[in-house]
Amino acid sequence: MAYRKKAYTLKEEIREDGIRYSIGFKDGQGNYHELEVSEQFFMEFRQMERRNRNLQQWDERHREFNEVWEETLNRRALRLPKTLDELLMDKERDELLYRLIDGLPEIQRRRFLLYYDYGFNYYQIGAMEHCNASAARNSVVIAREKIKAQMEKYLCA
Fold first, then answer.
1. 8-state DSSP, 26
2. Is 81 strand, coil or helix?
């Protein structure tokens, strides 16, 4: 990887008169230079190198190495998105359902929608419609059976 290539070299030479610390690098024209530096500067430079190396290693451990494409996301998804064919079938089925609901008699349609779309129970529907719960239930069940029969006829054809 390009970011791992260093633009400099650190040297520590042991001599008779002591230890010599230097940093070597190439300038913009490609000429090599070597600078003698103090021990403190040299040690700080080495610490900086270690911190950078640790950051790079952390980055490598936590970076995702594959491309995040739609296919990759689909493999990770809890529920796969629907295909275009499935979406079209769902839309067509929904349109048929709404058409069949519109074709119900007024009382059945109203009670059916109150039960399935608005989540009211039979007792609440009966209170709103001024009838008992069993009448509301029977109305909803009959409406559901009519819709189910017509949907099966359409879907099986």
1. E
2. coil
24 Cβ contact partners less than 8 Å away, ≥ 6 residues apart: 8, 9, 11, 32, 33, 34, 35
Q: How far apart are the first and last CA of the chain?
A: 61
Q: Which amino acid is at 98?
A: Y
Residue with tokens 């529920």: 79
pLDDT along the chain (157 residues), means of 10: 68 89 88 91 91 87 68 74 90 92 95 95 95 95 95 80
Rounded CA separation 84/73 (Å): 17
Query: Which residue type sits at 4?
Result: R
Cα separations in angstroms, 59 against 8, 34, 62, 82, 114: 22, 31, 5, 35, 56
CB 12 within 8 A of CB 28: no
Q: What's the confidence (pLDDT) of residue 68?
A: 67
Burial class of residue 74, CB neighbours in 10 A (0-12, 13-18, 19+): exposed
* Angle value at C-alpha 142, between 136 and 145, nearest 5 degrees: 140
pTM over 0.85: no
Query: Which SS3 state, helix, strand or coil, does residue 84 take?
Result: helix
Residues facing residue 37 across a β-bridge: 21
